[in-house]
Specification:
802 residues, alpha/beta, 4-stranded mixed beta sheet, 30 helices
Length: 802
C-alpha cells in the first residue's frame, strides 16, 4: 500500500521536473536566439535598408528653369552666370559632337541600357534640363593608346577604364585579342570540347589565385552567382554576409539595397571594419555560407561605389586616406582569422580589383588569401569573361552521398575558344617579371601625379582634390555645393572620356606615359577653373553663407514637399480638398504680396474675379445675400451656441451652393485659377456634412436625448468644416507659400461681409428677374461632371469686361 501510495507522488515529481526542463530549454533557446539577434543588430548596417525604404517613398521631381540655377539659394546674378555657363557648354557640345549626337538619337534609340545610364548621370531633380541641354554622345570609332576617337573625330583621354576592363591599355588588348584569335580560329565557336589552351590558362590562374579549382563564365556577375551558389551548396548554409556599400554585380542575390525589388532574407549586410561584425560572424557561423569582400571597399568603407547620380552635396562622397587603408589591411587579416576559426568560407570579389591593384590582385596587395576568388573584366584579355577559383571542397557541384542532390551551374559560352585565346595572351604577359616592373613604374608615376595635381588645385584655390588606391581614383569636393556633379560635363568638354558614373570612379591604365599624365592634369585644371568662373561653386556672403546645413535643409524640404504633394495629388485627397494644378495651362499664377497694401489689393482682386466667374445670376446673388447674413450672425454665436450656429450655418451653406449648382453655369477652370473649391469638390463637402451626423448617431447610444444628439452632430459638422478649410489652406501653403494661403483664407472669411455689401440690390429685383429660367437639371449635372463654362474659352477677366 505504501508503494502504491508513493507512485503518484513520484510521477508528479517526474512530470514537474520534465516540465521544468522543457521550460528551461525553451528559455535557454530564446535567450540564445535573442543574443544572436542582438549581436546581429549591432553589426548590421542600416544603410541598405534605409536606402531601400527611401526608394519606395521618395517621389521624382524636376526643378524648373528658374529654380535649377539657384537651388542652393544663390542670388540672381550668380544664377545668370550659371545659366550662361550652361549655354556655353550646350553650344560647345553641339559643335563638338554634332555627328555623334545625331547618330545616338537614331542608331541607338531603343537601347534600354543607354536609357538607364543616360537618365542616371546626375541627381534626379536636375536630370530633365541636363538631358535636354547636354547630350552626352556614346558612339566611338577607334582607340589610340589611352585616347578614344568618336564619330566626330574628337580624341578624348580615357579615364573611364571601360568599367574596369582596361588595366593594361587598349592597344595591348587589341593585340591580345588578335593573337588569341589566331591561336584558336581553326576551332572556331566549337563548344563542349575544350581547346588545349584552356589547360595553360588553368595552370596560370591557379598559380595567381593559389587555389585548387577553376570555373569559367561569361561575366563577373555570372561568376558571383556561381560562387555563392557553390558556397551555399557545399556548406549546407543559406546566409550570405556582405559589407555595407559593396557592389557584387547586379544579381539580386547579393544586392540588399536599392536596385533590387526582391525581398532579401538570406543576405546580411554588415558594417565594414567593425569588431561587431566579427562578433556577428562568430555568433552565426552555423548559418553563414560565405563572407564576400570587395577589396575596393578599402577606398570608401561603408559607402556604395561613388557616383555623380547621388552627388547631391559634398558630404556624400569621401575617400579613405593612407591611414584608413592601412587599417583596412589589418581588418582583412582579422576577418581572415575569424573566418578560419569559424570555418566560414571567405570570398574575395576581385572582378574589379583582380590584376589591377597588383598582378596577383588584392590578395597580393593586402597579403590576405581567400577560400574563393572571383575574377572578371580584364582577365579576358579584352573579351567577356568571369572566373571562379576555390578550394576543391567548395567547388563541388554534386553530393557523392546523394546522387540527386546537385548544384546546377553551367553556361553555354563558358570557356569559349576566342575568350580563352585572349585570356591566355593576357595571362602570359601579366605573370612575367616585366609586368611587375610596369605596375611599379606606373604606380609611382601616378602617386606623384596625384600629389602634383592636389598641390596645383590648392595653389589655384580650387575646391577639389584627387585621391587614389593604386590606379583607381576619384574626385573629392572640399566645400559644400549642390552642383558638384556639373564637373563631369566640363571634363567631357575638355576632352576627357568618363563612364556614366561621372567623377566618382576613375581609372588610369598602365599605358599612360608622362605626356598623358601632364595632359590629364591640364584638362582637369582647366575644367575646374571654368566651373569656378561660371559660378557653380558660389558659397554665398558672410551674412548669408551657403553651408552644408543650408543645402541639406533645402534638399530635405524639396524632397518632403514634392513627395507629399505628389502622393496627395494622385490620391482622393487632392479631389476632396481641390488641390490646384502645379504646372500647365490650368495652373494658377500666384505672386505673394510683399506689403499689407498689396495683401489687401490681392484679396479684393480675387473677390472681384470670383464675382465675375460665378456670381452673375441675380437669383444666386440673392441666395448669397441670405446665406452671408446668416454667416455673419454665426460669427457672433459660434462661441456661445455651437449647436445653433452649425445648424443654421449648414442651412446657409446648402442655400449658397444651391445657387451655384442650379442657377450658374459650371466654371471649374475659373474657380481653380482663383485657388478655391470648385463645384465638384464642394460636392465632397456636402457629402462630408451628410455623413458626419450618421457617424455621430452610430457612436451614440439609443437613450441619448435629442439635444445631446444634435450637439454631437454640430461638433462633427464643425470638425468637417475645419478639415476642409484648414486642409485646403495647408495645401495652398505647401504649394504657393504662407502669404498666398492667407490671401485665400482671409478672402473666404470676409466673403459674407462683401457679399452683403455687393448683393443687397438683388433683393429688390429677384422676384422680377428672368434669371429664374436658367435653373435646369442639365446645369446641375454639368457641375458634377466638371465641365468648363462656355467650353472654358472665356476667362474671368473677359467676363468682367462683358
Amino acid at each position: 500500500r505504501e508503494l502504491r501510495g508513493s507512485a503518484p507522488v513520484a510521477m508528479t515529481i517526474i512530470q514537474s521536473f520534465t516540465l521544468l526542463l522543457v521550460w528551461a530549454a525553451l528559455l535557454a533557446y530564446a535567450a540564445y536566439r535573442g543574443y544572436k539577434i542582438f549581436i546581429t543588430l549591432l553589426a548590421t548596417s542600416p544603410t541598405p535598408f534605409g536606402a531601400r525604404f527611401a526608394s519606395g517613398i521618395l517621389r521624382s521631381f524636376s526643378l524648373d528653369d528658374d529654380k535649377f540655377f539657384c537651388a542652393d539659394g544663390a542670388p540672381e546674378e550668380i544664377a545668370k552666370k550659371r545659366r550662361a555657363g550652361m549655354d556655353n557648354l550646350a553650344r560647345s557640345f553641339d559643335e563638338q559632337f554634332a555627328a555623334s549626337q545625331k547618330a545616338s538619337e537614331t542608331v541607338l534609340d531603343g537601347i534600354s541600357d543607354l536609357r538607364f545610364t543616360d537618365t542616371n548621370r546626375v541627381p534626379f531633380p536636375f536630370q530633365k534640363l541636363v538631358r535636354e541641354r547636354l547630350n552626352v554622345a556614346t558612339l566611338a570609332l577607334s582607340s589610340e593608346g589611352p585616347h578614344i576617337v568618336d564619330l566626330d573625330g574628337n580624341r578624348s583621354l580615357d579615364v573611364s577604364g571601360s568599367y574596369g576592363v582596361n588595366v593594361c591599355g587598349y592597344d595591348n588588348y587589341k593585340r591580345w585579342m588578335e593573337a588569341g584569335w589566331q591561336r584558336t580560329k581553326d576551332l572556331g565557336p566549337v563548344l563542349g570540347p575544350l581547346h588545349p589552351i584552356v589547360g595553360e590558362n588553368l595552370a596560370m590562374i591557379k598559380a595567381v589565385s593559389k587555389l585548387d579549382e577553376v570555373s569559367f563564365h561569361m561575366s563577373g556577375t555570372e561568376a558571383i552567382m556561381c560562387a555563392v551558389r557553390l558556397a551555399a551548396f557545399n556548406t549546407r548554409r543559406k546566409l550570405v554576409v556582405t559589407f555595407a556599400g559593396a557592389y557584387h554585380g547586379w544579381w539580386d542575390g547579393v544586392q540588399p539595397g536599392p536596385g533590387n525589388e526582391r525581398k532579401i532574407t538570406d543576405v546580411l549586410p554588415l558594417k565594414d571594419m567593425s569588431p561587431a561584425s566579427l562578433n556577428a560572424i562568430r555568433a552565426r557561423k552555423d548559418e553563414i555560407a560565405c563572407v564576400i569582400v570587395n577589396p575596393l571597399q578599402g577606398f570608401n568603407p561603408n559607402s556604395p561605389p561613388p557616383n555623380d547620380l547621388v552627388l547631391m552635396t559634398a558630404a556624400i562622397r569621401k575617400a579613405a586616406d593612407s591611414k584608413t587603408l592601412d587599417h583596412y589591411a589589418v581588418w582583412l587579416k582579422e576577418l581572415r582569422k575569424t573566418c578560419t576559426e569559424c570555418e566560414v568560407p571567405l570570398m574575395f570579389d576581385e572582378v574589379y580589383t583582380g590584376f589591377r591593384m597588383a598582378p596577383g590582385g588584392a590578395q597580393q596587395y593586402y597579403g590576405v588569401h581567400a577560400d574563393m576568388v572571383v575574377y572578371g573584366k580584364t582577365l579576358g584579355g579584352g573579351m567577356p569573361c568571369g572566373v571562379v577559383c576555390g578550394k576543391r571542397e567548395l567547388m563541388r557541384r554534386f553530393d557523392p552521398e546523394r546522387p540527386l542532390r546537385v548544384s546546377y551551374v553551367i553556361g553555354t559560352f563558358a570557356a569559349h575558344p576566342l575568350t580563352m585565346g585572349a585570356m591566355n595572351e593576357f595571362l602570359r604577359w601579366v605573370t612575367t617579371p616585366e609586368a611587375e616592373q610596369v605596375y611599379e613604374k606606373v604606380g609611382k608615376q601616378f602617386e606623384h601625379w596625384i600629389k602634383d595635381v592636389n598641390d596645383e588645385m590648392k595653389a589655384e584655390n580650387l575646391p577639389l582634390s584627387v585621391h587614389n588606391l593604386t590606379t583607381v581614383w576619384t574626385v573629392i569636393f572640399n566645400q559644400p555645393g549642390r552642383y558638384h556633379w556639373m564637373f563631369q560635363y566640363y571634363l567631357r568638354d575638355e576632352g576627357i572620356a568618363l563612364s556614366w558614373v561621372g567623377t566618382g570612379r576613375l581609372l588610369v591604365s598602365l599605358d599612360f606615359v608622362q605626356n598623358d599624365f601632364e595632359l590629364l592634369k591640364k584638362k582637369l585644371l582647366n575644367a575646374a577653373k571654368r566651373m569656378r568662373d561660371d559660378g557653380w561653386w558660389y558659397l554665398g556672403t558672410p551674412d548669408k553663407p551657403i553651408t552644408a546645413q543650408s543645402i541639406s535643409a533645402a534638399m530635405g524640404k524639396e524632397m518632403a514637399y514634392n513627395t507629399v504633394m505628389k502622393t496627395v495629388r494622385e490620391g482622393l485627397l487632392a479631389e476632396v480638398l481641390c488641390l490646384p494644378e502645379q504646372t500647365g495651362p490650368r495652373a494658377p499664377k500666384a505672386v505673394p504680396p510683399e506689403t499689407l497694401q498689396e495683401f489687401y489689393e490681392e484679396v479684393m482682386r480675387r473677390k472681384e474675379d470670383d464675382h465675375a466667374a460665378s456670381h452673375s445670376n441675380t437669383v444666386n446673388q440673392f441666395m448669397h445675400l441670405i446665406s452671408s447674413t446668416i454667416f455673419i450672425i454665426n460669427y457672433c454665436t459660434i462661441w456661445s451656441n455651437c449647436t445653433a450656429t452649425m445648424a443654421t450655418g449648414l442651412f446657409s451653406l446648402f442655400l449658397r451652393q444651391s445657387g451655384h449648382a442650379i442657377f450658374e453655369p459650371p466654371c471649374h477652370d475659373e474657380e481653380e485659377l482663383l485657388l478655391g473649391f470648385n463645384t465638384r469638390s464642394k460636392c465632397f463637402v456636402v457629402a462630408g456634412y451628410t455623413l458626419a451626423p450618421l457617424i455621430s448617431l452610430l457612436r451614440l447610444s439609443n437613450d441619448v436625448g435629442f439635444f445631446l444628439t444634435l450637439a454631437s452632430i454640430a461638433r462633427s459638422w464643425l470638425g468637417v468644416t475645419l478639415f476642409f478649410v484648414l486642409g485646403h489652406t495647408g495645401l495652398l501653403w505647401m504649394q504657393y507659400g504662407f502669404r498666398i494661403s492667407m490671401v485665400w483664407l482671409i478672402k473666404l472669411v470676409t466673403d459674407p461681409f462683401t457679399d452683403v455689401l455687393v448683393y443687397y440690390p438683388s433683393a429688390v429685383t429677384v422676384w422680377t428677374t428672368k434669371d429664374w429660367q436658367t435653373a435646369t437639371w442639365d446645369n446641375f449635372l454639368s457641375h458634377l461632371r466638371g465641365e468648363p463654362k462656355d467650353g472654358g474659352a472665356k476667362s474671368a477677366e473677359e467676363k468682367k469686361t462683358q
